[in-house]
């Protein structure tokens, strides 16, 4: 996803006829780093080209999906959009109890007390939990900073009350200042035209050869080309790997 977004932004930057970008977002989020990298690429694109970006959130634009959306100059959400879930989660598990039942014991050798912290083979200690919480708090503050820098009318103190991980409907998000407007993709196009002082404009959807493309609503179900969906990962793989993963993700 990060590579594809960068590729498409390069194409847009080279096109002298391109005046604005519409981001279709349909995602519950993803890893902390992927979310931040896409946000960074969009910010750099705006600085380099001066183009306006309009984010249009479809079914879902939660956590990392919203993180990416705030890079836009305007955020529009469908009337049935679910957004918010501002926060960080670390996916992890412990199978120590199960191993004890079948007579298996962890025999790992380590060079430091906390070298195996987060291992699924043992129960997390209070000290390890404190260390992880410190990392989580830093990543959480990064999330708040990104929102505060881009949503100037949203006071930090109010933002902190909103950023407890809960989700919001489009109407609630509008009332709280998390988005700018409720509407459809057609309204996003109108916003882009207004931002660039254009009376007429042609919408271009980037796609690779052989990929079906018909209109603005094509390929939305699977988050195909032209739609940002950070969750191109398998949560079961994360769980089975046993490796702690820091996520800007709504994963109930």
UniProtKB/TrEMBL annotation:
The keyword Hydrolase applies. The keyword Protease applies. Keywords: Hydrolase, Protease, Serine protease. Belongs to the peptidase S49 family. It holds the Pfam family Peptidase_S49. InterPro entries: ClpP, ClpP/crotonase-like_dom_sf, Pept_S49_SppA, Peptidase_S49, S49_SppA_C. Residues 47-197 form the Peptidase S49 domain. The lineage of its organism: Bacteria, Pseudomonadati, Planctomycetota, Candidatus Brocadiia, Candidatus Brocadiales. This is Peptidase. GO terms for molecular function: ATP-dependent peptidase activity; serine-type endopeptidase activity. GO terms for biological process: proteolysis. It comes from the Bacteria.
């Amino acid at each position: 996803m990060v590579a594809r977004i960068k590729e498409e932004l390069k194409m847009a930057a080279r096109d002298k006829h391109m005046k604005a970008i519409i981001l279709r977002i349909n995602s519950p989020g993803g890893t902390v780093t992927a979310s931040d990298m896409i946000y960074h690429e969009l910010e750099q694109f705006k600085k380099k080209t001066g183009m306006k970006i309009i984010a249009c959130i479809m079914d879902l634009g939660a956590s990392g999906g919203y993180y990416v959306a705030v890079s836009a100059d305007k955020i529009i959400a469908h009337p049935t959009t679910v957004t918010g879930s501002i926060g960080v989660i670390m996916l992890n598990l412990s199978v120590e109890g199960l191993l004890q039942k079948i007579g298996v014991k962890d025999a790992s050798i380590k060079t430091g007390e906390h070298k195996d912290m987060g291992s699924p083979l043992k129960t997390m200690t209070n000290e390890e939990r404190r260390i992880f919480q410190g990392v989580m708090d830093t990543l959480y503050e990064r999330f708040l900073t990104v929102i505060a820098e881009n949503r100037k009318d949203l006071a930090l103190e109010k933002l902190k009350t909103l950023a407890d991980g809960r989700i919001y409907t489009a109407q609630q998000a509008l009332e709280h200042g998390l988005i700018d407007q409720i509407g459809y993709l057609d309204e996003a196009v109108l916003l882009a035209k207004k931002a660039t002082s254009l009376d007429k404009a042609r919408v271009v959807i980037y796609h690779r050869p052989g990929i079906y493309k018909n209109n603005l609503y094509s390929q939305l179900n699977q988050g195909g080309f032209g739609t940002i969906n950070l969750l191109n990962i398998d949560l079961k793989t994360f769980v089975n790997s046993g490796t702690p993963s820091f996520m800007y993700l709504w994963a109930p």
